[in-house]
Write a structure and sequence with these properties.
Number of helices: 52
Structural class: mainly alpha
Number of strands: 0
Strand content: under 5%
Shape: globular
Radius of gyration: 39 Å
C-alpha cells in the first residue's frame, strides 16, 4: 500500500468534492490495515503537507484507541521522535501526536507508567521550544484517562489514573516552571493544572466516599475531601494562588488568562463538599478571589441593571468568566453559612468564645450573586440564578452530583447511579431531614428574601422593549421561567405568604406613582403566579386586590408593551381561576372584564417584534377565558338569578365568531361555552342556547355551501385550500355542534325529558352537517373531528340516542363518507358505538348495530379477498386493521354475535374472505400487515369461542345455546363460497407460522395470536377436525417447510399441543418452537444445507 495512494486520497478528500464519500471510505479502510504503521512513518517523516501530516497522526490515534499496536519497535520512542519534529506545530498535528502518545501508554504494563511519565516530561523539558508540547501533553493525560474511546479494560484505566495521581506534585512543579515562560504558556499551564485537579476524582478512596451514605444535608453523595485539600497544600500551590490573584484583577488581565484561571478555581472548590478547616481555607480562597474580581468589574455594569448589555462586548465576556464561578458557588455558600451558624450557636451554648467565621465574605458573595441576577443580560443573570438554585437545592437535600467519569459501573450500567440515589433517598430519616431544614431555615431566610426581591427585578420587562437594542423577547421568556422555578422553591424557606405580602407592599408603592409602570405590575403578576400554587386559595388580600385592580389598569394600545401587559392580565386570571370559582363577585367582575374589555381589545393590537408574540397573547387570553368558564361553570349558571350565564355565553359566542382570532383560540372559547351549557339543569334553555350558538356558527358557512356542486364529487374530490386543511369555518361549526358533551347525569328519573337537547340540535341542523361532511370527505382532519364529535355526543346521550331519529342517519352518513375516502377513524367511531349500545338489550338496536358493522366490514373483507386472489390491491393497512378491530368488538357481544351469525348475510361472506386473505397478508409483508392479521385472528377466535360450550358454562339460556349451535354450524357445516371454514382455517394457521419464520418468530404478535386461535380450536368442539387436519396442513407447506417436521414429529406435536392446551403460556412457547424450527429450515435451505 504505497504512501502515494494515501496522499492522493487525502487530496481528493479535501478537493474532489464529488467523490468525498469514496475517498473517506478508502482512507478509513486504510486506517484499519496492519500495513498502515509503515506508511504513516513515511508520511510523517517525508511529506511536507499539513493535511497529510494531520491524517497520518490521526491514523495513529485511531489505531491506538482501538488497540491496534505495532508489531515491532518501541511505540513510545517513535511517537516522541515524531513529536520532536512538530514542537512548533502545526498545532492540530501536534495535538494528535500527543493524544497518540498518551493512548499508547494505556496499553503498556502498569509498572511502566511512572517511568513513561518521567521520561516524557524530561524529554519535553529539555528544549524551550517543547514547552507548549509539554503543556499539551499534561493536559491530555487526564483527558485520555477518562476517554472511553480507548478500549482498554476497566481495571487498566483505573490503574493508569491512579499511577498518574502519584506524580501530581511533580506535574504541578513542571507546570509552575512552564507558566513562567510567557503568557501563552501560563494559560496552557493553568489549563493543565485544572485537568490534574479534576483527575483527583479518579482516586479510589475519594470515589468510595462519594458513594457512601451522606450525613451532610443537601448533598446526594457522602462527604468527601481530596487528599490534596486534606494535606493543606492546595491553597498554597503557586498556580492556584496565581489563578486567585489573576481573577482578583479580572478587569485588566488577559481574557484568555482569566478563563484559564476560572477553570482552575472551579476545579479547586470541586475537590471537597465539606466545611472542615482544610476545606474552608481552599473554599474561601475561591470566594475571596470572586469578591475581589467583582469589586473591580461589577461597578462597570451598574448601568446595566436597567439598560440591556451588548451580547458580545468585552465587558460581557469578562463578566461571564466571573459569573461562571458565581453560578457554581451556591452550594459552597450554603455549606459555609450553615456551618458558621451552627458553630456559633454551639459555642454560645457552651459559653465559649465565638469561633472565627466568614460571615462578611459570605455576605459579600451573596451580594455579588444578587447583582448578577439583576443584570440585564440573560446569560449573565442565569449565573446568579444558578447560585441561588444551588443554595435552595442544598437546603432541600436535592443537590445534584455529577456522574463520576472514572466510575466504570456508571458507564456499563447507566441506571446504577440513579438506583443508588433512590436507595440513598429512601434511607434518609424524614424526621431528621425536617429538623435539619427547620434549623437551617432561619439562617437562610434573610438571604432568600433578598433573592426574591432581586428575582422580581430580574423578571421586569424594559419599559419600551422595541427601543432596547439588545433585548430578545423569546430568550427573556425562557429566562423568566427559570426565575419562576427559584421563586417557587423559595416558598419552602420564606413561605408563600411572605412573598405574596412583599409583592402586595410593592404593588401599593407602584400604584401610588403616576403613571403606573406597567413592567412593574407585570413583574408582580409573574411572581404571584409563580407562588400561587403553593399558597392556600383566598387566604391573602393581595391577589384579590390585584384581581379587583385588573379592569382599572391603564392598558396600552400601541407598542410591544401593549401585548405584554395584556398577557400579564391573562396570566393572572389563568392562575387564579380556582379562586374565582369560589368567589362569585370577583368572578362576575372578571368575566365582564374578559368578555367586554380584555378579549375584544387584543385583536386590534399591533404585532410585536416577534411574530409569535401576538399569537401567544391571544392564546393565553382565550385559555384564561376557557379556564374561568370551566372552573366556575356551576356558579355562572346560578349567578344573578340565572341571568349571568346568558350574557356571558352570548358575549363569548360573539368572540368565537370574530375571525381575527386564530382558529385554535376560537376552539378554546367553544370549549368554554360547552362547559357552561353542560351544567344547565333546564334542558330547554340548554337546547335553545346551543341552537343559537350553532346557528350563529352556521352563518360563515354560507359562501362555502353556496359554492358546492349539486352532487358530491365523492372519491374525485380534492383538497382546494392552500394549506391542504379544511376551511376553519367548517371545523368551528362542528366544534360548536359537539361543544356540549360532558353533561352530568340527571338525578330526577321521574321527570325524565322526552329527548336529549344536544341530539335535538343535531337533528335540527343535520341537513347542514350532512352537506358539510359529504362534500368534504377529502379533508381527513375534519372528518376525524366529525367522528370524535359524534362519538362524544352519542356517548354522553346514550340513554336517548337509540330512539333519536338522527341516530341511524348519523351512522349511514359516516358509512357514505367512508366509502368515498376510507379512513380508520370511521371504523373507530362504529367500534365506540358498538361499545356504547351493544348491552342495551333492544332487538331493534341490535339489528341496527349488526347492519352497521356489516356496512363497514364487508366491503373491506371483500376487497382483501380479491387482492389475495390477484384481483386488485387492498386498502391501506390502518384501515384494514381498524375494520377488523371493529368486527372483533361486535362479535364479542353475544347478542350481536347471535344475530349476525343467524341472519346477517354479510357475515359468512366476511368469514370466507377473511380466511382467504389472512395468510396472504402475512406472506406479502408481515411487518406492514401485522396489526390487521392480529385483528383478523381476534375476530375468528371470537367466532370459535361462541361455538365452545365452555364459553356459556353456567349460563345455558336458550339464546346462548342457539348461538353455540349457530357458531358450530358456521365453522363446520355451513358451505361458504370458497369451501368449509374449519379445514381452510387450520391450513391458514399453518401458512401463518411459515410466513412468520423468516421475519423472526419471536418478534411481534403474529405467532402468539396464531397460538391463541389454535388453542381455542383444540379446547372446544373442533378438537378432532383440528387434530387430524393440522399434520396435513403442515405437510402442504412449500419445500423445505413441508418436510421440516417428519410424520412422527407432526403426531408428537399434535399430542403435545393437546396436552398443553390448558396452559396458555406453554402452548404459545410450543407454537413458537414450531415457527423457529421453520426458520432454521429456511436458513439451511438458503445455504444449501
Amino acid at each position: 500500500m504505497a504512501a502515494a495512494q494515501v496522499v492522493l486520497h487525502v487530496h481528493g478528500l479535501h478537493k474532489d468534492f464529488a467523490n468525498t464519500h469514496a475517498h473517506s471510505t478508502w482512507l478509513q479502510q486504510f486506517q484499519q490495515a496492519p500495513e498502515a504503521w509503515a506508511v504513516v512513518h513515511e508520511l510523517l517523516t517525508r511529506s511536507n503537507e499539513e493535511v497529510v501530516h494531520y491524517f497520518a497522526s490521526h491514523t495513529l490515534v485511531t489505531k491506538l484507541q482501538a488497540g491496534h499496536l505495532p508489531s515491532t519497535g518501541s511505540c513510545r520512542q517513535e511517537l516522541l521522535q515524531y513529536l520532536s519534529n512538530f514542537w512548533r506545530g502545526p498545532l492540530a498535528v501536534r495535538r494528535q501526536l500527543v493524544i497518540a502518545l498518551v493512548d499508547s501508554a494505556l496499553w503498556q504494563p502498569p509498572v511502566e507508567d511512572a517511568h513513561w511519565l518521567a521520561d516524557c516530561v524530561r524529554r519535553m523539558s529539555e528544549n524551550l521550544e517543547a514547552v507548549p508540547c509539554l503543556l499539551e501533553f499534561l493536559v491530555t493525560i487526564p483527558e485520555e484517562s477518562a476517554n472511553r474511546k480507548v478500549v482498554v479494560a476497566a481495571q487498566r484505566r483505573s490503574q493508569f489514573a491512579s499511577n498518574m495521581l502519584q506524580h501530581t506534585n511533580m506535574v504541578m512543579d513542571s507546570l509552575c516552571k512552564a507558566s513562567q515562560t510567557n503568557e501563552l504558556c501560563a494559560v496552557g499551564a493553568l489549563r493543565a493544572c485544572a485537568r490534574w485537579l479534576h483527575l483527583q476524582h479518579a482516586d479510589a478512596a475519594l470515589r468510595a466516599k462519594k458513594k457512601s451514605s451522606s450525613s451532610v444535608g443537601g448533598t446526594a453523595s457522602g462527604p468527601f475531601t481530596a487528599d490534596l485539600v486534606r494535606r493543606g497544600g492546595v491553597h498554597e500551590n503557586p498556580l492556584v494562588k496565581q489563578a486567585a490573584q489573576t481573577l482578583s484583577n479580572i478587569g485588566t488581565t488577559s481574557l484568555e488568562l482569566c478563563r484559564a484561571c476560572a477553570d482552575v478555581l472551579c476545579e479547586v472548590h470541586g475537590l471537597t463538599n465539606e466545611s472542615t478547616p482544610e476545606a474552608r481555607a481552599v473554599l474561601l480562597l475561591v470566594v475571596h478571589a470572586v469578591i475581589a474580581g467583582s469589586r473591580q468589574l461589577l461597578p462597570a455594569t451598574q448601568a446595566n441593571l436597567e439598560t440591556w448589555m451588548d451580547q458580545d462586548s468585552e465587558l460581557t465576556a469578562r463578566a461571564a468568566v466571573l459569573g461562571r464561578l458565581v453560578g457554581e458557588l451556591g452550594g459552597v455558600f450554603a455549606r459555609l453559612t450553615i456551618a458558621d451558624s451552627r458553630d456559633s450557636a454551639a459555642a454560645a451554648a457552651a459559653g465559649h468564645m465565638a469561633p472565627q467565621v466568614a460571615t462578611a465574605s459570605l455576605n459579600d458573595l451573596a451580594e455579588v450573586a444578587l447583582h448578577f441576577c439583576a443584570l440585564r443580560h440573560t446569560d449573565l443573570a442565569k449565573c446568579g440564578l444558578d447560585f441561588w438554585y444551588a443554595v435552595l437545592a442544598h437546603h432541600l437535600g436535592a443537590a445534584a452530583e455529577e456522574d463520576d467519569p472514572f466510575d466504570e459501573d456508571e458507564v456499563s450500567m447507566p441506571g446504577l447511579r440513579a438506583r443508588d440515589q433512590q436507595a440513598w433517598a429512601a434511607a434518609r430519616d424524614p424526621e431528621a431531614e425536617n429538623q435539619r431544614r427547620a434549623e437551617e431555615r432561619p439562617v437562610l431566610a434573610p438571604y432568600i428574601e433578598k433573592m426574591v426581591k432581586s428575582h422580581w427585578q430580574a423578571v421586569r420587562y424594559p419599559a419600551e422593549p422595541e427601543k432596547e437594542a439588545h433585548f430578545d423577547w423569546d430568550e427573556f421568556v425562557r429566562f423568566r421561567e427559570t426565575c419562576s422555578i427559584n421563586i417557587t422553591e423559595a416558598c419552602l424557606v420564606v413561605t408563600p405568604r411572605w412573598i405574596i405580602d412583599h409583592i402586595g407592599s410593592m404593588l401599593e408603592q407602584i400604584c401610588a406613582k403616576q403613571p403606573i409602570a406597567w413592567q412593574d405590575i407585570d413583574a408582580c403578576v409573574f411572581v404571584l403566579t409563580g407562588v400561587a400554587s403553593r399558597a392556600p386559595a383566598g387566604q391573602d388580600t393581595v391577589i384579590p386586590k390585584l384581581i379587583e385592580l385588573l379592569p382599572q389598569l391603564p392598558y396600552h394600545t400601541d407598542g410591544f408593551k401593549a401585548l405584554l401587559f395584556r398577557n400579564a392580565a391573562s396570566r393572572l386570571i389563568l392562575f387564579t381561576s380556582g379562586y374565582l370559582a369560589l368567589n362569585p363577585e370577583p368572578c362576575k367582575q372578571i368575566l365582564r372584564f374578559l368578555t367586554l374589555q380584555h378579549l375584544p381589545a387584543i385583536p386590534p393590537l399591533p404585532q410585536g417584534p416577534d411574530p409569535d408574540a401576538k399569537k401567544y397573547c391571544e392564546a393565553i387570553a382565550c385559555d384564561a377565558m376557557k379556564m374561568v368558564m370551566t372552573a366556575a361553570r356551576k356558579g355562572i349558571v346560578t349567578a344573578d338569578g340565572g341571568s349571568l350565564w346568558r350574557d356571558v355565553v352570548s358575549a363569548v359566542i360573539t368572540l368565537v365568531a370574530d375571525p381575527r382570532f386564530t382558529v385554535d383560540c376560537r376552539a378554546q372559547l367553544v370549549f368554554g361555552i360547552g362547559q357552561v351549557l353542560s351544567v344547565l339543569e333546564n334542558w330547554d334553555e340548554l337546547e335553545h342556547m346551543l341552537d343559537i350558538f350553532v346557528t350563529r356558527m352556521e352563518d360563515p358557512l354560507a359562501p362555502i355551501l353556496n359554492a358546492l356542486p349539486p352532487e358530491p364529487l365523492g372519491s374525485r374530490a380534492v383538497k382546494t385550500t392552500p394549506d391542504g386543511k379544511a376551511p376553519l369555518e367548517l371545523k368551528l361549526y362542528i366544534a360548536a355542534v359537539s361543544s356540549v358533551y360532558n353533561m352530568p347525569p340527571r338525578m330526577d328519573t321521574l321527570n325524565r325529558p322526552s329527548h336529549h337537547p344536544v341530539l335535538a340540535v343535531v337533528e335540527k341542523h343535520f341537513p347542514t352537517i350532512e352537506r358539510v361532511c359529504i362534500h368534504n370527505t377529502q379533508y381527513d382532519e375534519l372528518m376525524e373531528q366529525v367522528c370524535l364529535a359524534f362519538s362524544y355526543i352519542l356517548g354522553f346521550a346514550r340513554e336517548y340516542a337509540p330512539t333519536s331519529p338522527v341516530f341511524v342517519p348519523m351512522m349511514k352518513l359516516m358509512a357514505r363518507c367512508c366509502e368515498q375516502h376510507p379512513q380508520p377513524f370511521y371504523m373507530g367511531l362504529v367500534r365506540s358505538v358498538i361499545g356504547f349500545f351493544a348491552a342495551t338489550g333492544s332487538e331493534q338496536l341490535d339489528a341496527v348495530l349488526v347492519d352497521l358493522t356489516g356496512l363497514f366490514a364487508a366491503p373491506i373483507a371483500r376487497q382483501l379477498a380479491a387482492a389475495a386472489s390477484g384481483g386488485g390491491s387492498p386498502l391501506p393497512p390502518p384501515i384494514n386493521a381498524a375494520s377488523y378491530e371493529m368486527l372483533a368488538e361486535a362479535l364479542r357481544h353475544w347478542n350481536l354475535a347471535l344475530l349476525a351469525i343467524r341472519s346477517a348475510q354479510w357475515l359468512p361472506e366476511t368469514l370466507d374472505a377473511t380466511i382467504e386473505a389472512l395468510p396472504r397478508l402475512a406472506e406479502d409483508n408481515q411487518a406492514i400487515h401485522e396489526r390487521t392479521v392480529c385483528a383478523m385472528m381476534r375476530f375468528l377466535r371470537n367466532v370459535l369461542l361462541w361455538g365452545d360450550p365452555e364459553t356459556c358454562k353456567g349460563d345455558a339460556t336458550p339464546d346462548l345455546l342457539e348461538l353455540q349451535k349457530q357458531a358450530q354450524a358456521l365453522v363446520v357445516e355451513r358451505p361458504l363460497p370458497r369451501g368449509q371454514a374449519l379445514p381452510r382455517l387450520v391450513a391458514a394457521l399453518a401458512r401463518l407460522l411459515a410466513a412468520a419464520a423468516p421475519n423472526g418468530p419471536t418478534k411481534g404478535e403474529v405467532v402468539p395470536s396464531v397460538a391463541e386461535v389454535l388453542r381455542t380450536l383444540l379446547v372446544g368442539p373442533f378438537e378432532y377436525q383440528t387434530s387430524t387436519g393440522l399434520p396435513a396442513a403442515l405437510r402442504a407447506l412449500p419445500i423445505p417447510l413441508g418436510t421440516a417436521l417428519g410424520e412422527p414429529e407432526q403426531l408428537r406435536l399434535v399430542q403435545q399441543l393437546k396436552m398443553e392446551k390448558g396452559d396458555s403460556r406453554r402452548f404459545v412457547r410450543t407454537v413458537l418452537g414450531v415457527a423457529e424450527q421453520f426458520a432454521v429450515s429456511l436458513k439451511k435451505a438458503q445455504f444449501g444445507g
